[in-house]
Structure formats: structure tokens, C-alpha cells
């Protein structure tokens, strides 16, 4: 069993002596007692935990038939820390089959269809799903570590271009189209579809997890996120089941994700992530080349 940091004696109080650490992220520490999962606010500088609205999303998805953990309790401790207690999502080591990716597509379609207002990251409330920004451009900036192309900054100063100078010309060629993404129809998106966000059983999806970074933006955001973490063939398969386009707009949004992940990788001093961002940016540029 992992020893809990002294700071998270709150986890012991909520889960009991069987509590053990599962993971830490930008905004939360995650614990389990083997039957339940506790998400406990522990934000890094500049981050915030949005656990109240995460619980609201999960309840809405469960009502729509989407497999996601049952919300057991959500609240605020006397210390001011918010927490979300949910059922433990079960799975096996089989990984996804083709039907599992189709399951994920249908789950994302339900997420994209939830009523929402505003743009960008969500206000942490349980009565409605409202983005913090009034415009889609502002909404993108609330979630992604971006400046260019939304301001007059020097594109050469971007971490992605420092790592992959060959991407400068392709980015400049599509600058107007990148700005045009702010005119796309918007939906509630997951935005962070890496492999730890899913549970599979016999190749089928048993849980879609972690809506703390959910944001209102173009559905192509989720398609590009899938492509970044799982490759374009998987993204196309899931997008088909979700009823989302996986064409030029998804590749354009992929370039924005490349800029974002390169910035994050540099800030976190993760050269492996920087290489991945550059490789993905090149894959997006190839898809945009006639």
C-alpha cells in the first residue's frame, strides 16, 4: 500500500485506513479503497479543480445511458478542499476491440449533445453546464496553453517551433484557417482522451472517466485528442460512431493541440512529450497538404 502524504490525511478521513494513492494530476489527487474512488482537490499553481461540475456531467451521462462511474458524494471539506466520491470503474486488461471504440463514439455523441452555454472550461456548479468565456476563441484559451495564432506574438517563439522548425511554414500557411475554428459549431467536449480515461471489459467500454477538463468547443477537439493519444485510424473510427467529422477541421485542431502539448512539455521539462507533440504536428500538417 502506498503511504499517503501528510497533506492528504483528508483522504484517510473520507476513505478510511484502506485508502491508497492511485494517481496525481494537475488539479486532483486520486485515491481508492478498492471499492470507491476519491478525487480530492490538489491543484497545481494556475490550475483549479472542477469536481462539482464533473459530478453533474457524470449524472447527466448516466441518465443518457453512458457508462461512467456512479456519483456517491460530492462536497467541500472544512479545509475548503472539494472532493468527489464515486464508484470504482471495473475493467480488464483486454483493451478495446472495434466494438469498444464504437462504444466510445456513442458515449462522446451523448456528451456532445448535453445542454450547455458559453464556451471553454466550465464553471464549477451543479445547476447548469456553462463555459467561463463568452466567445469560442476565449474558450479555447481558457483550456489550451496558447497565444499564437490568437494574438500578434511571434510564431518562432512557440515551443513547438523551437522543437520542430519545419512546422513553421505549414502553420503560417493555415493561420487564417486556425483562427476560423472559432466559428465552428460548439458542443461539450471531454478534451483529454488519453488511455487512462477509459475502462474496458472484453473489449467493450465499461467506463468513460474524468471530466475535470471538459470544455465547450468544436467536437473536432475530441477527434484531435483521440488522434494525438491513439492515432488517426482510431480517431476516424470513433468519430464515425460519434457522428463527428474527421477531416480538415480535426487536423487543424490537431495543430492547436500540438502547440498546447509542446508548451506543456517544455514547462514540465518532459522532452519525450515535446517529441510527441512535434510528431503529431507533422502528422496534422501532412493531412492538410493537398
Automatic annotation (TrEMBL):
Superkingdom classification of source: Bacteria
Domain Aminoglycoside phosphotransferase: 32-237
Pfam families: APH (PF01636)
PANTHER family from the UniProt entry: AMINOGLYCOSIDE PHOSPHOTRANSFERASE DOMAIN-CONTAINING PROTEIN, AMINOGLYCOSIDE PHOSPHOTRANSFERASE-RELATED-RELATED
Name of the protein: Aminoglycoside phosphotransferase domain-containing protein
Source species of the chain: Deinococcus koreensis
Amino acid at each position: 500500500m502506498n503511504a499517503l502524504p501528510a497533506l492528504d490525511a483528508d483522504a484517510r478521513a473520507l476513505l478510511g485506513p484502506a485508502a491508497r494513492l492511485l494517481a496525481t494530476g494537475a488539479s486532483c489527487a486520486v485515491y481508492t479503497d478498492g471499492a470507491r474512488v476519491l478525487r480530492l482537490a490538489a491543484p497545481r499553481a494556475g490550475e483549479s479543480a472542477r469536481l462539482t461540475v464533473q459530478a453533474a456531467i457524470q449524472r447527466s451521462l448516466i441518465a443518457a445511458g453512458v457508462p461512467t462511474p456512479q456519483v456517491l458524494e460530492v462536497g467541500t471539506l472544512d479545509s475548503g478542499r472539494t472532493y468527489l466520491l464515486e464508484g470504482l470503474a471495473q475493467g480488464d486488461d483486454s483493451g478495446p476491440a472495434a466494438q469498444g471504440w464504437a462504444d466510445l463514439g456513442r458515449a462522446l455523441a451523448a456528451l456532445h449533445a448535453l445542454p450547455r452555454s458559453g464556451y471553454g472550461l466550465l464553471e464549477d456548479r451543479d445547476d447548469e453546464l456553462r463555459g467561463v468565456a463568452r466567445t469560442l476563441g476565449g474558450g479555447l484559451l481558457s483550456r489550451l496553453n496558447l497565444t499564437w495564432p490568437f494574438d500578434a506574438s511571434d510564431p518562432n517563439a512557440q515551443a513547438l517551433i523551437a522543437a520542430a522548425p519545419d512546422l513553421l511554414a505549414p502553420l503560417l500557411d493555415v493561420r487564417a484557417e486556425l483562427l476560423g475554428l472559432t466559428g465552428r459549431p460548439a458542443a461539450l467536449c471531454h478534451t483529454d482522451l488519453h488511455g487512462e480515461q477509459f475502462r474496458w471489459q472484453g473489449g467493450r467500454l465499461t467506463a468513460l472517466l474524468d471530466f475535470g477538463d471538459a470544455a465547450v468547443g468544436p467536437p473536432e477537439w475530441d477527434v484531435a485528442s483521440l488522434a494525438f493519444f491513439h492515432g488517426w485510424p482510431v480517431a476516424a473510427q470513433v468519430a464515425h460512431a460519434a457522428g463527428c467529422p474527421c477531416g480538415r477541421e480535426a487536423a487543424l485542431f490537431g495543430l492547436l493541440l500540438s502547440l498546447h502539448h509542446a508548451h506543456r512539455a517544455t514547462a514540465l521539462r518532459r522532452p519525450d512529450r515535446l517529441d510527441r507533440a512535434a510528431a503529431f504536428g507533422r502528422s496534422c500538417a501532412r493531412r492538410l497538404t493537398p
